[in-house]
Structures are given as structure tokens and as C-alpha cells.
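Is this the right way to post C-alpha cells for a design question? Let me know if I should format differently. Anyway, here goes:
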């Protein structure tokens, strides 16, 4: 059963508006949503309609209306204990904050959206779209790795709900990654990603996939056109893929910049320059550096290498303002801050501030002991994981304690991000962290182990602490089984620690 089937009113109208939005027709969806809100009285129905209306305004680029729409949607969702609605609202809010160029607020909404969607128990088509919209938000704000993880989650949930994988192809995520590489001087890396997008498009066409979303057409078209502007031929017709695509500002800008690229590839750089100057594009679609980078390519093709160099330097300066290293640290910092705020609000769960590690915002050893003692008193059992950082001593020696603190904060953010709802993470001592998975057995622990290892290995430690490899040495045990105490479980887990691989089986 779809999430929408749980609503008490106007289900058919909301499903029709939802379908229009997914097909890039937000201008048609908006009056349907307004009509629903004029008559609906059910709180869940109204909350859903308000969230979708907020999303439609974002798609249409109506920035002046976003603040009021978000406040109304947030107030409606806040009154309901529904994680999907919270996740969807925060994903849209992150996109809205991006359009308003409010990075701090956008990152906060990203963290909240991720946590809410991860708490959804029944995965259906609406949840899949929630992950899709979160992936878009990650991508627009520059978190390309997180965007790819979220869109893969959308595909998995979507397949389980009967949605074809190509619906969540989301070429725009990799397109933004590609142009970001080019803005930072890695044109070869950009071309590699663009070729991969071209290969994917060819595969979808070859199998007769006819469910590509209109919004994907514009992203595929621009990927082809951008590759042509860099001097590579493509088998597909970029101009044909740039047609259609819906009424969003994203599609409009991609279509215009795509025509600029094709004009340049057609040997008319002066005309391409005039096209760039004639129509302003949003800095939020492909980054503020993209028009400058295209201008550089045009100047180079026209033989004006001094102007090309100046435009390239300007594009690089714009790109440097949004480098991923700072964003990754910022994301984990926001996660730790939210944890600290939750700790202060929820005295029943965490107690006073003496139960919190001030560096990471995680519960400390004292709170871990209280938490496990309460759990054992209820006769419950749990999987216990002990994680040590390998290379941490060298980090402090080579880079200083400040960098060591940043590494600890990064690891705390990674662990918090990959945990399931209801799991417990604590900083135990120094560079040692403990995770508790209530009610988990070997299968669940192995899955969490895999996520921890994958997330840790995916971090770019060489940017943060160059020349110092970082990995986790970790092991699993079980508490509450056969009367095993916390101390015994921690000792057993520590004895099983293995570096640089998914955590070991429980003993």
C-alpha cells in the first residue's frame, strides 16, 4: 500500500499533482494543491499538500514565496509523528535554502532530512521520492558523494515499490560532479564522468527504457553538449535531448547553456559568447563558475588566450569558495551540533551535560554505561561494536592536536550518519568509539559493519591529514546474552578488532 493511501481526503488529486511534479510540470500541479488545501481538513492530508506545494514553488524558482511556504509546511509537519513527511519537508527546505544561498541552514536541513528518512519503516514510492529529493539537495549543495549514496537508496526503495530503476537515473547529480571537477582544473576527470553519463544513456536507449523523467532529458542533453564543447564527439544527438524537460528553472538554464555549448562545438565561439551574455542563468543550477568556465572555452576557441586565462582564473576562484573539503567538515560539524542540542533538550535520555563528550557532541562513557545498564535491567540484549582509529597517534604527531580533533569529529559524524534509528553511539575514550545496536543479531550487525567500513573508507582523509592513512580497527561482541556484562562484551569486542575491513562477526 502506498503512503498516499493512508490519507483520509483528496488522495486522487494529490496523486495527480504528485505525478505532474515528477514529470516536470509544477506549474500545473500548484493549482491542484491549492484546491486541496482550500477544502481539506485532515491534518495529514494538509501537511502532505503543504509540503508538495513547497516543492512546487522551489521547482518554479519562486524564491520570494519560499520562506512563508516553508514555515507553513514545517508547522504542519511538526504536529505529526511521521518521519517520511519530516524527511521530505527537510529535503525541500535544503533545496530552498540553496536557492536563497543560505548554506548553514541548507546543511542543517540535509542532516535532518537524512535522519528522518532513515527512520521510515515501510519503504514505498513516496519514500523513494523522498530519498531522490534528498539526493538532489545533497548534489546542489556540493556533497556529491552523499548525493550518489542517497540516489542509490532511492533506487533500492523504488525497485522494492515497483518503480523502474531508470526513473531514478538522476544524471544531474553526476553532471554537477563533472562540471565541479572542470571548474577546479580537472578537465580530464570531468570528461571521464561525462563519458560515463553518455554510456548510461546509451544503455537505457538500447533496452528501450521509456520511463526516463523529463527532468533527466535536460541533464543528459547538457552532458552531451558539454562534452562536445570540450572537443569530444558523442553518438547521441544532444540537441534532441535538450528539448522538453518540464517547466523548472533547472531545465530552462540547462537548455540555454546546452545551446551555448552546441554553438561553440559548431565552430561559432563569438556567437556562443553573445548567447552567454544575453540570458542570465541561476548560479544555483551548475554553480556560479559554470558560465565563467564556458566563457573561457569560448575565448580559447576564438584564439583570445589572455581572455581565456582570465576567465579560467575567475571560474577557479568561484569554485574554490565551495570546495568539498570544507563542506564535508561542515556537514559533520552540523551533525555533531544537532546531537549536542538533542542531548540538552532530552534530559530523560541523556541526563545532564556531564554525560556528553564536548568535542563530538556524542554521549560519553558514563552515559554509555547508564544506557546499557537500563537496557539490561529490562532483560534486553544488543550487539556491541568497539571502534579504534588506526593512525591517530601519527595524526597528532605530524599535524597537531587540532587536526586530531577534526579527525575525531569526522569519525563521530560518519558513525552517526550510518547508524539505524534507535542505535546508540558514544565516544568511549580517546580515539575509541562504541556503538550499541539494541536487539540486533549477526545479520544486522554485519550490515551496520559494512556501512561503517564503507563510509570510513570513502572519506578523503588525504585532504584533511595529508600523508597519514586513517582506518578503523573494530570488533563486535554481544551484551545481555548468557548474562554477559558490558565490561565482558567490550573486552570480547576489543579482542576481535581487525583493521581496514568490515567489522568482525560477533562472539
Amino acid at each position: 500500500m502506498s503512503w498516499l493511501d493512508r490519507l483520509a481526503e483528496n488522495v486522487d488529486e494529490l496523486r495527480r499533482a504528485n505525478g505532474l511534479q515528477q514529470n516536470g510540470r509544477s506549474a500545473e500541479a500548484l493549482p491542484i494543491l491549492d484546491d486541496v488545501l482550500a477544502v481539506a481538513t485532515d491534518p495529514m492530508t494538509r501537511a502532505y499538500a503543504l509540503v508538495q506545494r513547497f516543492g512546487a514553488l522551489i521547482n518554479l524558482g519562486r524564491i520570494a514565496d519560499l520562506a512563508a511556504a516553508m514555515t507553513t509546511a514545517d508547522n504542519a509537519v511538526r504536529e505529526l509523528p511521521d518521519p517520511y513527511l519530516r524527511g521530505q519537508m527537510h529535503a525541500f527546505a535544503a533545496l530552498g535554502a540553496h536557492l536563497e544561498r543560505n548554506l548553514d541552514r541548507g546543511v542543517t536541513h540535509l542532516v535532518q532530512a537524512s535522519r528522518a528518512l532513515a527512520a521510515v519503516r515501510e519503504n514505498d514510492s513516496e519514500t523513494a521520492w523522498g530519498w531522490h529529493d534528498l539526493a538532489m539537495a545533497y548534489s546542489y549543495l556540493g556533497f556529491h558523494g552523499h548525493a550518489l549514496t542517497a540516489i542509490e537508496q532511492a533506487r533500492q526503495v523504488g525497485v522494492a515499490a515497483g518503480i523502474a530503476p531508470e526513473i531514478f537515473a538522476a544524471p544531474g547529480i553526476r553532471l554537477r560532479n563533472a562540471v565541479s571537477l572542470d571548474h577546479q582544473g580537472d578537465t580530464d576527470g570531468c570528461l571521464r564522468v561525462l563519458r560515463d553519463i553518455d554510456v548510461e544513456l546509451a544503455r537505457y536507449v538500447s533496452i528501450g527504457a521509456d520511463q526516463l523523467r523529463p527532468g533527466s532529458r535536460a541533464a543528459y542533453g547538457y552532458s552531451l553538449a558539454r562534452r562536445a564543447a570540450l572537443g569530444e564527439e558523442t553518438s547521441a544527438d544532444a540537441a534532441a535531448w535538450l528539448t522538453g524537460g518540464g517547466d523548472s528553472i533547472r531545465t530552462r538554464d540547462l537548455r540555454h547553456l546546452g545551446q551555448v555549448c552546441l554553438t561553440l562545438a559548431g565552430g561559432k565561439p563569438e556567437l556562443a559568447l553573445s548567447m552567454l551574455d544575453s540570458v542570465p542563468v541561476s548560479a544555483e543550477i551548475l554553480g556560479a563558475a559554470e558560465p565563467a568556465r564556458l566563457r573561457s572555452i569560448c575565448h580559447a576557441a576564438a584564439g583570445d588566450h589572455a581572455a581565456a586565462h582570465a576567465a579560467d582564473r575567475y571560474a577557479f576562484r568561484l569554485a574554490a569558495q565551495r570546495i568539498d573539503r570544507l563542506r564535508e567538515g561542515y556537514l559533520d560539524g552540523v551533525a555533531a551540533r544537532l546531537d549536542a542540542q538533542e542531548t540538552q533538550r532530552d534530559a530523560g535520555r541523556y541526563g545532564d551535560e556531564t554525560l556528553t563528550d564536548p568535542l563530538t557532541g556524542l554521549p560519553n562513557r558514563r552515559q554509555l554505561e547508564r544506557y546499557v545498564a537500563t537496557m539490561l535491567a529490562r532483560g534486553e540484549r544488543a550487539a556491541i561494536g568497539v571502534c579504534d582509529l588506526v593512525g591517530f597517534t601519527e595524526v597528532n604527531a605530524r599535524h597537531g592536536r587540532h587536526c586530531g580533533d577534526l579527525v575525531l569529529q569526522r569519525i563521530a559524524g560518519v558513525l552517526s550518519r550510518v547508524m539505524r534509528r534507535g542505535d546508540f553511539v558514544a565516544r568511549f575514550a580517546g580515539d575509541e568509539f562504541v556503538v550499541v545496536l539494541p536487539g540486533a543479531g549477526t545479520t544486522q550487525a554485519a550490515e551496520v559493519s559494512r556501512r561503517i567500513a564503507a563510509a570510513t573508507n570513502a572519506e578523503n582523509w588525504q585532504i584533511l591529514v595529508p600523508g597519514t592513512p586513517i582506518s578503523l580497527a573494530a570488533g563486535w561482541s554481544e551484551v545481555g546474552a548468557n548474562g554477559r556484562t558490558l565490561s565482558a562484551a567490550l573486552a570480547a569486542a576489543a579482542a576481535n578488532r581487525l583493521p581496514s575491513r568490515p567489522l568482525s562477526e560477533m562472539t
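Format looks fine. Someone answered above. Worth noting: The two ends are 40 Å apart (CA to CA). Residues 94 and 110 are 6 Å apart (CA to CA).
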